[in-house]
Amino acid sequence: MSIRLIVGLGNPGPEYEQTRHNAGFWLVDNLANSLPGARLQRETRFNALMAKTSLGGKELWLLEPQTYMNRSGQSVGALARFYKINPDEVLVVHDELDLPPGSAKLKKGGSSGGHNGLKDITSALGTQDYWRLRIGIGHPRTLNLAQPVADFVLHRPRRDEQLLIDESIEKALRIIPIAVAGDFPKATMELHTA
Hints:
This protein is an alpha/beta fold. It has a single domain (about 5-194), classed as Rossmann fold, CATH 3.40.50. The protein has six helices and seven strands, in the order E-H-E-E-E-H-E-E-H-E-H-H-H. Strands 2-3-4-1-5-7-6 form a seven-stranded mixed sheet, sandwiched between helices. It is found in: Cytoplasm.
């Protein structure tokens, strides 16, 4: 078993580009830029930006749904069905309120934790049994902010937080080839101890 589809979650449009909720897009953009020939292009049948590439000799799809976060499952489900990609071959990269900026965690399955993008993907795939790469953005309460969560995720991180989020994305990018190869224990250990 290996990863065949990496999905970055976010919201389309320039007004959302630099917001915390787009951390998944940020990682997939960086990954696409690092892989030869991986150019994200609009694919209307999946309502997404996507690229077909390879990593470590394995075919790999990159996907950024353009449906807005709450409807991400439409793109993910359609592409997974079309290319016969099993849920356990899907890695969804998303912002995570329960992790501080600068941290990233890899896990398989589990609840959506209130993340509407994950809820919709779970519904579209018919299972929670897919991989998640959680990019910490912090929580307004733990960052001593009075902002409601919905407002917090749709705003830019402060400069110090952005630097930490960028660091966690760099750490996460280093384990992507290991996950694509299917060595999840090693990928998890390297990411969680980095």
